[in-house]
Design brief:
Distance between the termini of chain A: 60 Å
Order of helices and strands of chain A: EHHHEHEHEHEHEHHHEHEHEHEHH
Number of strands of chain A: 10
Shape of chain A: globular
CATH class of the largest domain in chain A: Alpha Beta
CATH topology of the largest domain in chain A: Rossmann fold
Oligomer: homodimer
CATH superfamily of the largest domain in chain A: Glucose-6-phosphate isomerase like protein, domain 1
Helix content of chain A: 40-55%
Strand content of chain A: 5-15%
Number of helices of chain A: 15
Chain lengths: ~450, ~450
């Protein structure tokens, strides 16, 4: 069985949903032409070295350092790994954990966890939640991985100082360094150290560097994502292998071979020319639910821009609003709107083809005639049937639907998905003529926050 | 301090965001007129008794039965409460639990939980997740609350038969009834029993009735929501009190007094006449995060309709797409798009005014000059400042923003919020001239699912 993920866009073609809403062969050829132009720009981008996410999986020195560090730290008595980070510093690892660890992992015994620590991703500054985490995690048995590329993120810095206070009370100053791993940007020449770099120096703790050319939402394969992954026993080699598999496919300018280009072209056309302002990501798999959340940041923050690439045109207000949904759960919440509401969405249905178990539905009495359709079926059969029914209904309602098939959820397929969406986003930025790698409005908010906090 | 929630719409007015995007005084008067017409229809609706959610909190017999049953069952040695349900059968109770129980409740010891059981809401048919729940929950110490108003929901029935098999193996047939509580619709005259009613009869288990006039997404104050709430020790009297408080406010036709009407009018105007096709719900509170998810179902499934109320006009394709976000977390994920992307959103910012704790941020060395703004502040100060900064930025970018102030998160304020949004949805249905209480497309999917499952 192939371990490659597959993209199927037959559900957006006019043959499936009609010419009013679907993509006709001539439009498809237009998309091909757009992409072959964009390909030249992407090739330049790759060559420039300005965007590290294309090749970070090949950085053996860094990956080895991460692996060796994790192995060493796991020899200590670590009961909890707590990640302090927000946005791109939290979403990648959350996605990996939801996909690759048991759903109720933290409730398992240490033995069931094969000795790996429990994990808490603290991605907010809600004081009540944060206090509750601190109640649960004995500082003596807890490792804190503090992640901020800029080294100045207010939320993460606030968390860090609250934690430092707790560590000092419990362990004394001299031991703090053993309970802290910092992941932050490189020390800049002729600039003062950032708060996180100062802390790193002060406590002499292990520190990973996020390369300058990797942005937060593209950082899952930097130490931001792979260090905690290694601490939880995920297979880094398979992650890197998945990246390489997809990188190879994404090097082609042929849409039939390159799923990132194809999906970017389809989405770009439907958002720019057909009023599809919303992109729904709906995996039929609890494991993949947070991938939809990670995609939400990537797609929203990268493409939501009011200026074009060189700043010459303002008030563009580009972007497509991503929505995370979950099959089958959200059939009973969102699907009514997707089927009968405004024609403003493109829906991606993601399939986990093989579950680890299937759970036979047994014991239905023969007298329950209305349940005949469920006899001798499994829960796995049911979720697959529901997925097919949804695709069928979406097509019947003339809603464009993209299918992504994930043969099994594992390190390799996860990496393929991450990498594909990252390239898709970069290319969509080219097609929209915006810069997908910055976030000027978020920077603005940081300034306002400081003002309001100063006022108290 | 008032325990009433407050709605503030100053951020949608032209005075705040300009006339191009804001609501001018003359438009506001138009909205008032629309609502005063809608009020007459709502009054009729209430009088008809067709929609039970308006008054279910006054059904003392039912609420007492729920309370007494829970008290009795809690005397047994119940370590786990497992809820089997999907859509409206799961979202209400999930919202209550996230808001009113500790964030890491299931990780607490039984003592810390004050003797109440752990809780698992199973709202999907992912076979791997379901297996993992079964591994964790010893059937001898587990109570299953199976919820489906129709009594035929495929997902819930499948879960139920898988669980029955497990219970039978572990406890023997005769004991199953003590581990099962069924919540389902009333037995219809001259109709055969539904599968869930059959099971209820077969195992002679406690069964709660969901009144015929209560739809799934409006059912949180029926036994669907309040029985599990009682099993987890939530205060039912305070829930009922909150409903009564808000019911009183919602009886007025005066927009200044009735937040449900006001919010419905604003949303309806902006979606129908100003291209605001998306409604973002963004609480600055981890406790309120799932309220945004509950709202997502309510708003999407109620208003996403292609026909008008009497079926005379088809292809309306009404509806506004709800999005759940979380402050401050999603400032680092979604806000860039909300501020610089298309002018297609109305954003609701929800405030938790008083947290249980504030967490002082201490120990910042004086030498860290860039962190001066954080000195002597708390994590609570930070989340409030971020919220204000976001509202400020949204207004500056001319994006309409509604504020909801929740003085404290407790049973009363939660009930007020639920009730307000329910009435708001009913009124929005009137304004849009669609039926907010049905879900025809979801019914269609059920038929397709049976076909696909039959084929296997």
């Amino acid at each position: 069985m192939s371990q490659e993920i597959q993209l199927d866009i037959s559900g957006v073609r006019s043959a499936a949903i009609g010419t009013e809403h679907g993509i006709t062969p001539s439009v498809y050829r237009e998309i091909e032409r757009d992409l072959s132009e964009a390909h030249e720009i992407i090739k330049q981008e790759k060559k420039s070295g300005d965007y590290g996410f294309y090749t970070i999986h090949n950085d053996r020195t860094m990956w080895n350092d991460v692996e060796i560090t994790a192995k060493k730290l796991l020899k200590n008595d670590i009961e909890n790994l707590v990640i302090l980070g927000i946005g791109g510093s939290a979403l990648g690892i959350t996605t990996l954990l939801t996909a690759l660890k048991p759903q109720y992992y933290n409730l398992q015994t240490k033995e069931e966890r094969r000795g790996f620590p429990r994990v808490f991703v603290m991605d907010n500054v809600d004081p009540d939640s944060f206090s509750e985490m601190m109640e649960l995690c004995d500082p003596k048995k807890t490792l804190f991985n503090v992640i901020s590329k800029s080294g100045t993120t207010a939320e993460t810095i606030a968390q860090l100082f609250v934690v430092l206070e707790m560590l000092q009370k419990s362990l004394g100053k001299s031991n703090i360094g053993n309970h802290l791993v910092i992941t932050t940007g490189p020390v800049a020449k002729r600039k003062t150290l950032t708060p996180m770099q100062e802390i790193s120096k002060k406590y002499d703790c292990k520190t990973f560097v996020v390369p300058e050319n990797i942005g937060g939402r593209f950082s899952v394969f930097s130490p931001v994502g792979i260090f905690p992954a290694a601490m939880l026993g995920l297979n880094l080699r398979e992650l890197a292998k998945g990246c390489r598999l997809m990188a190879k496919r994404c090097a082609s300018s042929d849409l039939k071979k390159n799923p990132a280009y194809l999906n970017a072209g389809i989405h770009h056309h439907l958002m720019s020319k057909r009023g599809r302002s919303i992109s729904v990501m709906m995996p039929y798999s609890n494991k993949l639910r947070d991938l939809a959340d990670w995609y939400r940041q990537l797609w929203a923050e990268s493409l939501g821009k009011k200026e074009n690439r060189d700043g010459s045109e303002t008030k563009l207000f580009a972007g497509q609003t991503p929505i995370n949904a979950l099959g089958v759960t959200d059939q009973h919440s969102q699907l009514q709107l997707y089927l009968e509401g405004p024609h403003d969405k493109i829906v991606t249905i993601m399939e986990e083809s093989h579950f680890n178990t299937n759970l036979p539905i047994t014991g239905i009495p023969r007298s329950f005639k209305s349940l005949k359709y469920m006899q001798k079926r499994t829960m796995g059969d049911l979720i697959h049937a529901e997925r097919k029914a949804t695709v069928h209904a979406l097509k019947a309602a003339k809603r464009p639907v993209v299918k992504i098939k994930v043969p099994r959820v594992n390190e390799s397929t996860l990496a393929q998905l991450f990498y594909m969406f990252e390239v898709q986003t970069a290319v969509a930025g080219v097609l929209l003529d915006i810069n997908p790698f910055d976030q000027p409005a978020v920077e603005q908010i940081k300034i306002f926050t400081r003002e309001y906090l100063g006022k108290k």
